[in-house]
User: Fold this.
Amino acid sequence: MNESGLAPSALIPVPRGPVPEVPARQAVRMVDISIDGKKVFASEGSTILEAARQAGIDTPTLCFLENLTPVNVCRLCVVELEGSRVLVPACSRKVEAGMAIRTDSERVRLSRKMVLEFLASSVDLSAWPEFGGYCERYGAHPERFGKDALDHKQLVKIDNELYVRDYAKCVLCYKCVQACGVEAQFTFAIGVAGRGFDAHISTEFEIPLPESACVYCGNCIGVCPTGALMFRSEYEMRQEGRWNEAEQTKTDTICPYCGVGCDLTVHTQDGKIVKVTSPLDHSVTHGHLCIKGRFGWQFVQIQPALQDYR
Assistant:
């Protein structure tokens, strides 16, 4: 028999294979815990922070972000766990059946107060939106460490047209390093250099940012909580005293550049786009964008010359 005889005939239908079945969703096991004396049911594998938020308890965070792996460096979310010698970070500690947790005990409040005071005495937290409220809530007074402690003078790095770096505001939360690395972009343009008091965010071998591996996706800006990394448009407006988030409008739309379908949140003020972000809960982007989606909106505001219409 020749090879053509082995080929299936077009007149004989080919039998269909088995239809793939969607695996059955496993039931989520619930565990019962106690938070501030109140019985709460939380899903197995969730964190204390998630359980507390589900119960309507506001737990302060700084280095935590929903789309990144917790790194436990700021210690602002610590809570008191019965049977534990030390306070535990709520953002990463998994719930276990029978846990008794206190989120607002005297010990917890003192710890959070000291964290806020120590941070603010060495870092400029003026651009962190929740800072003032948390200081009032926990009675934190960073100025008690002396006026010199609040002097955060450091040159702002402005070496490109898209964003600026003000390391006087950096709390070393490592979010930018995560977003630049395995959590999002896989560029690895920045990392933590130095040790102890000399630890700081840096490019490879301290080279200038434009010469580094940075692709200007801006994902580091999207995760920075304190304004150490900021849109250049926002920085310049703040310097001029024109930045006013209360007057800004946020509009959700789809990025027009490709077919991925990234969600954008366009921030406008006085009829002009001032910056673009992305929702953390979007299934495509998870808050991350490329250079086009985050910075490629200037064409919307180009005013064509009159002679173009003549």
